[in-house]
Amino acid sequence: MGTPSSEPYRMDPSGGCPHAANARLLTRGSVTSVVLPDEVAGMAVLGHEALKDFLAHPDVAKDARHFTALREGRIGAGWPLRTFAAVRGMTTADGVDHRRLRSLVSTAFTARRVERLRPRIEELTAALLDDLADAAAAGGGIADLRRHFALPLPMGVIGELLGVEAEHRDALHHLSNQVVATDIPPEQAVAANRDLVSLLASIAAARAEHPGDDLTSALIAARDEGGDRLSQEELIGTLVLMIIAGHETTLNLITNAVRALCGHRDQLDLVRDGKVSWADAVEETLRWDAPVSYFPFRYPVRDLTVDGTVIPKGTPVLAGYSAAGRDPAVHGPDADLFDVTRPGRPGAVRHLSLGHGAHYCLGAPLARLEATIALERLFTRFPGLDLAVPETDLARHSSFVGNSVRALPVRI
């Protein structure tokens, strides 16, 4: 248990690598006061055990009606984090509403349904590895792995699941990337949200006119059946959340795993030699370099004491996944070391990087499958693959929500 400093930690809207700051914050305690963009006061839960308890606490809500500053009109329309609070869907619903919305899409993400996607993911992976090779041939042996492989794989899979035509996917990635950015000006944030909603509404309208065997068509059918199953606003909100969560997280996961394995060749050799599995490498990446660093928002519905620190009712709270993943109190004194044997150790603590409790990531089985196939096929096809620039030269995401780099030049 610790006591946070009287000086709140100012979240850096430009993002950057979170780990050095996280280590300093954890020495102050499991919970800390933060300053969000536009001087909005908030808090972050950083320690593994504190976060695990907080995520499953019955007096912690996701519905933004519990966000005091937003409810009182003190949050502007162009606040860069507003979408995380205001979008209507699973991640901003509680109780019965959350179960209703989650049930509408959960059947598409069961372990059995996801496993049926394996042949398609393998086929798409093989085609993208060809594209990566072509891009490298045109670039003197160097290509951006993020652009040519780590992005189109999850975007292609979620696009097919949702019935989104290929020509819309670049625009959806660009807009969702702006939505999760924390450093864009208000007018740009408003425009990005408006354009993303507009594009998804037009995609939904096309699916309504020509239904298919896809999740969007199924959601539209639920909306049109009447009753209280799904409103139009919830339909679009669900599509917004699924597009963002369905590709941004896996994109970062694959990118971070490749960076980690290239930077730790001894660990890569352990996987290649069969001493641990590619799935173990994925789990260690999730812990060591979580694809989502600080996820907005949860709100206590009453003053809540978490690990000795009071979080006032109505405070917007960030879930500090990247900090919890390297919490030495739980993961040991070597928590900051990348060790692919860690997930298989007796008594190893499972990370929280895909959430915990009722809002545990619905797409976790799909993300794990995509990343595992991607890494195995990538390093089998290109055994000499390595970073083309030093890790320290890689430009970071302009967000403290997403945790990765903007581009990943590799030499294949």
From TrEMBL:
Keyword Acyltransferase among record annotations: no
Pfam families from the UniProt entry: p450
UniProt superkingdom: Bacteria
GO molecular function: heme binding; iron ion binding; monooxygenase activity; oxidoreductase activity, acting on paired donors, with incorporation or reduction of molecular oxygen
Signal peptide: none
Keywords: Heme, Iron, Metal-binding, Monooxygenase, Oxidoreductase
UniProt keyword annotation of Repeat present: no
Family the UniProt entry places it in: Belongs to the cytochrome P450 family.
Name of the protein this chain belongs to: Cytochrome P450
